[in-house]
Structure formats: C-alpha cells, structure tokens
Design brief:
This protein is an alpha/beta fold. Strands 10-11-14-15-16-17-18-19 form an 8-stranded parallel beta barrel. It has a 6-stranded antiparallel beta sheet with strand order 20-21-22-27-24-25. Helix 9 packs parallel to helix 10, helix 11 crosses helix 12 (425-432) and helix 13 crosses helix 14. The longest helix has 17 residues, at 243-259. The termini are far apart. The protein binds calcium ion. Calcium ion binds at residues 121-122, 206-208, 210, 212, 227, 233-235.
C-alpha cells in the first residue's frame, strides 16, 4: 500500500487533504479521460487517486443482456497523476464495461464518469465509435446565423411535454421522443411559425428517475437528477438498450432544428447528482462534493448534495462535458441549473473554452442556490456577481423582471405589475434596461436587486415564467380569481409585451403563448410539476385554436423584436444613449404606467424612434407624446409590424391593461 493511501486512512480531514497543495501537485490531471476509441484499439483512463486497485469488467456486446456476469475482468495499470489505464486491442465498439475500484479493500463497481455511451438505465458504460452515430449530412450541419447574443429568443420546453398529447399529431410511438420532436407536425411547425431563435430543452442528458426498461408505462420527470452527464437520456430514444441509438437520435434532433433555423440549448445540471452513489463519488469518495467543517455533505442544491466546481477535477469535468456537447452534438447554448452553486472562475473557464469553439454559443443560468452552501458568496456565480464577468457573455435569469411583471413565485396570490401590483414602475424599468446601469432607473425601487447587476444586456435573461412554479397563465388566474378570461388575456398580453420589447435575452416558457395551464385531474393548479403526470405537463396543442388571438400577439411581438434592433441593443452604452423614459408628472399623471422612447439618437435603427407604453391600470390613461406622425403597431388587441392606425395626436389615450408601441414615420 502506497504512502498516500496510508495517509488517506490516517487523515481524518479528507476535505483538507483534497484541498492541500500536496494532493493537488500529485494528482491534478489535465489529460483525456474515459474510453478513447479507435478501430484497432481502445484506451481506458480513469482518475482514481485514492484507489488501491482498479479493474475493468467487460460484459460483451449484447445490449439486451444487461444484467449478465462479466465476460472478463482485467486489472488496470497505475499511471500518472492518479490515473489508471488499460489499452485493449481490437474493435471494441459496442462493448459494455464498468470499472471496479478498490478503496480501503472494498470493491465498488461504477459506470465510467466520462462514458459517452451507456446501456439501458445508464448502468453500464459502452465503448462507442462516435463517427458511426453521425446522421447523414452531419458534417454539413450548420448552425442558423446568430449575429448578436441579444438576438436570442428562447423557448423553454421539455422533450416529453412537447409531443406527448395526441393533439400534437405526432406518430403515437414517437410521442415524447427525440424523433417525435422533429416530425413535421404541429409542435415543430409551431416553433417555426412563432419565430423563436433557440429551443431550450429541459434535461436531455441521462437522468435517473425514469425506468428505461418500463417505457410501456407512462412515466414523467423533468430530469433534474443527473446520472450520466455525457450521454443523452434513454427514455427519449426509440431504443434505450442500444447505446448508439440515443446518441444518433439526439444528433438528428439538433440537425433538424438547425435546418429549420432553430438553435438548441441544453439545460445542464452539474450542481448535484441523483444521489451520493454517483459514479463520481464511487470513483473518488468525497472528492467531488462540498462538505461542512464537520465533514458532512452540504446540500446547497436542496436535492441532497452539492458538487464542488471549485475543486480542480470537477471543474475540469464540467468544462470537458460542456465542450464535448458543443463539439460532438453541435449544441448552441447551455443553461446552468443553480449556477449560483458554481464558482465564478469555473463559469469563466467554460465561457473561454466555448469561445474557442464558437463565440455565438450562449451561456446563462440561475444566479442563485437552492440552500446554504459553504462556497463563499463573493466567489459564487450568483446573479449579483454577474458584473464580475466584465464583458463576457454569461447571463443570469432576472427574477427581478419575472416577479416584477407577475408577482412573487412563492406567494401565489401576490400580484406584479400586470395584475394589480402597485409601485412596480421602477421594477419594470429595471427590466426594460436589462438590469444594466441607467440614470433614469431608480434601482432602490427595483423588485429585489439594489444594484444594476449586469454590465451588458446579453448578461440578463428577460422573462416572466419558466418551468418552475405556476405557469404564467395559472399565476394570472390565481391572483385574479374573479376576473373574466378576457381580462386575464389582457394581462398575459401585457406580460408578453414587456418581455419581448425589453432589452436582454428573451425567454418564453413553452405554452405561455397558448395560455398553458398545469391543472391536474382534480382541477388543482400544480406549481411544481417535476414528477406530475403527462396530464398535468403535456402541451395541449388544441389550445392554439382557442387562444389563437394570444398566440398571434406573441408572434407579432417576436416579429417586431426581430425587425427593430432598438429592442435588442448590444451594449449598456447604447441603452443609455437610446432609452429615454417619460416621466410621471410630466408626460402623464397616473401611477402604474411605464413609457419610454427608444432609438433617441436614431443610430440604432435606420427607421425612426420607437415609443413604448405599458399601462397596467384598470382604466385608460392619457400620455403626452412627441408630436409627429406615428404608426401604432401594438395595442390592446394586436401586435406586429403593420400599422394598426396612424397617430398624430399630442395626447394619446392608452387603453386599460395594455401595451402600446408606436414607430415614428
Ligand atoms: Ca435515464
């Protein structure tokens, strides 16, 4: 037994040892890991510095015999920097294998943490010839153009929700699958019709909560329980047993969406693992997780554990994983779950590595944690630390904007600007400028923040709702129980208008545009539907007919946003130069009104100034506007780029609960 292992046994404080210079000098490793395949041999490399012995169990190539005994067990050689290696001759593509790690004379079997392919339920790693998983034309796959990060309009959707309802029109056996997602049916046509630029998929990597051997029984989960980080989820494939199928089918999804002009964002969940029996923890116990001073695992994710991005080899793991998805699967963006649990340095390194591949890849995440964490606040990728990225494109979700618009996500009855909240004008103005510094916005009256936390507009995700909490429609219903549906739709339209005319990266939760509800069979509105039934979660495409007017309104706003650069300025400087707010007491005399002129210097759009007015009152208001010829393109009924009517008045009557947009002629 080597010295360091003896030492490990003596060391009471493993945490201190992992963080010591001695350990890092000995074991921080920068090379490749996993199974490195070529036609005539495969090399296996595992990082396991605390192991006394590591073996590989080979299980043969039959994907359906997934509980068979090992055909062969081979010892690995101790190599540099805590790695163990083995080279095997021959074409191993399709071979299932696991590592057997011996620590303190106890043997544990684990899937390769760097597995690129796995068998059913992700319980065995598989060697894969990735080239053979490329769909036809994969080398010619081209990302749709994205000139500017702020051109991004994201649609956040769950793979299964998207097509599982029969109204999707998708072939029955492909509903809920990657393949169904890209059928030329209602859901995909809807995406194209609406004009989104990015499709953000809820976890599409391999997660643990759905049993892939029982797919004949309906099962649902959002998927925030990572099992294998570098492999697509098996239940979304047409065959979860054969490791290559899910890989190919996910690539086909990316390829098809690219062809249709849509970019693809993956939701990545590196902040915690399904449980503490993760393959990472079996390989190097305790290394990949944070602990408190007493040596107990901490739970900053509220999911039972939290990983340690600030440890060298987990930072490397995250970077390697993101780079792998970007290169191998042509992924165009990453949404980091509980990004506030990662450290700033890791996020910067990820951004730098992505820049080397393609600067247009977008990065954004939740700038908060799920609970108490030992990660020092000043080092955490929290929303309030966004300014520390300087000009890097790493964005945080603006909960200031989200809750300012429609009310607090946890206090269900609490209203926001659109549904009766008072004193939220500055919260909306803060959203308009994408949380970047602006002299006419009083940050002390913003929703939560007391600082302009973003340096640049591409660091803010502007949104009203996401998969978490009540849907926008359900929140609106809950706050305003006694109002007619027509009144609720006005609020929904006003919300859409605020999101899609404000600066920053736009983000829409799937179904917002067709008044998506998550009502269960008993009529309860489900606010956390992560393991609810299909009934609760499925997108009901027939609502496209019923809520056509609302849908057209969203569509029109997206078109408007895409037509005028002034809605998606690239810098805080441009925003400062080109947004001028009208003032209560000057141009109007009512509270609950936000109005501003865009493009004031005429340099952003060749076309002229744009006037935007939000009135959340239950009554019409009068606003004095610059006297000239305007085209009204958005009002309480319609939104788009076509003139609804010409306006030449000094004084404009703005209808109750509405947004108006006027383009100077
Ligand atoms: Ca799975």
């Amino acid at each position: 037994v080597e010295d360091h292992i003896m030492k490990m046994r003596e060391v009471v404080d493993v945490k201190k040892y992992f963080e010591s210079k001695e350990f890092q000098d000995l074991y921080n490793y920068d090379g490749k890991l996993g199974s490195i395949y070529s036609k005539n041999k495969t090399k296996f490399i595992l990082w396991a510095p605390t192991a006394e012995e590591v073996k590989i169990a080979f299980y043969g190539k039959d994907p359906y015999n997934y509980t068979c005994e090992a055909k062969k067990v081979v010892r690995m050689d101790k190599d540099i920097k805590g790695t163990w290696t083995l080279e095997v001759e021959g074409d191993l593509s399709g071979e299932f294998y696991n590592y057997i790690v011996n620590i303190d004379r106890e043997e544990k079997e684990l899937v390769d943490p760097y597995a690129k392919a796995v068998g059913v339920n992700g319980n065995r790693s598989m060697v894969v010839d990735l080239y053979s998983t490329n769909p036809d034309g994969w080398n010619e796959d081209k990302k749709p153009e994205l000139k500017s990060w702020t051109d991004t309009i994201i649609y956040e959707v769950h793979v299964r929700d998207f097509t599982i309802d029969e109204s999707s029109g998708v072939e029955v056996n492909l509903r809920g699958k990657f393949k169904g997602f890209i059928q030329d049916k209602t859901p995909l046509n809807h995406l194209k019709e609406m004009g989104f630029t990015h499709i953000h998929l809820l976890p599409a990597f391999d997660y643990g909560s759905v049993d892939e051997t029982k797919l004949h029984i309906p099962q649902f989960n959002w998927g925030y329980d990572p099992k294998n980080y570098n492999v697509p989820e098996g239940s979304y494939s047409t065959n979860p047993y054969k490791g290559e199928v899910r890989i190919k089918e996910f690539k086909e999804l990316v390829q098809k969406l690219h062809k249709e002009g849509l970019r693809v964002v993956m939701d990545v969940v590196y902040n915690h693992t399904y449980d503490l029996n993760s393959f990472l923890n079996l390989a190097v116990p305790k290394y990949y997780y944070r602990e408190d001073e007493e040596g107990n695992y901490t739970d900053g994710s509220a999911c039972g554990n939290e990983t340690a991005s600030d440890r060298y080899m987990f930072r490397k793991y995250m970077v390697d994983s993101v780079v792998y998805w970007a290169k191998e699967y042509h992924i165009d963006g990453f949404r980091f779950d509980l990004m506030g649990l990662h450290d700033i340095e890791t996020m910067k390194e990820i951004r730098e590595e992505l820049d080397k591949i393609d600067k247009s890849i977008i990065v954004y995440g939740e700038g908060w944690a799920g609970g108490a964490t030992p990660l020092p606040e000043d080092k955490a990728a929290l929303k309030k630390n966004t300014f520390k990225y300087d000009e890097m494109q790493i964005a945080a979700f603006s909960d200031d904007c989200r809750d300012g618009i429609k009310g607090h996500v946890f206090y269900e009855e609490e209203a926001g600007f659109i549904n009766g909240g008072e004193g939220l004008e500055e919260a909306i103005k803060f959203a308009v400028v994408a949380s970047t510094k602006h002299p006419e916005v009083d940050v002390n009256k913003a929703m939560y923040s007391r600082e302009f936390w973003a340096n640049e507009p591409y660091q803010t995700v502007t949104y009203a709702s996401a998969h978490d909490n009540l849907t926008l429609w359900d929140k609106i219903q809950t706050v305003s129980k006694d109002l007619s549906e027509d009144e609720l739709i006005k609020m929904n339209k006003l919300s859409a208008a605020i999101v899609l005319t404000s600066q920053g990266i736009s983000f829409i939760h799937a179904g917002e545009e067709i008044a998506r509800t998550k009502e269960d069979e008993e009529g309860r509105l489900i606010e956390n539907s992560f393991e609810s039934s299909d009934y609760v979660n499925k997108i009901r495409w027939y609502r496209r007919e019923k809520y056509k007017d609302l849908m057209e309104y969203y569509k029109g706003l997206i078109k408007l946003r895409k037509t005028y650069k002034a809605f998606r300025m690239d810098s805080n400087k441009d925003i400062n130069d080109n947004i001028k707010f009208l003032e209560n007491g000057k141009e109007f005399t009512d509270s609950n009104v936000v109005a501003y002129i865009l493009n004031t210097k005429g340099k952003i759009d060749e076309k002229n100034d744009i006037l935007v007015i939000f009135n959340s009152n239950n009554k019409d208001v009068q606003v004095n506007i610059p006297h000239r010829k305007w085209s009204l393109v958005v009002n309480e009924e319609k939104a788009g780029i076509d003139e609804i009517r010409e306006i030449t008045d000094y004084r404009l009557n703005v209808k109750a609960k509405s947004a108006y947009v006027l383009i100077a002629k």
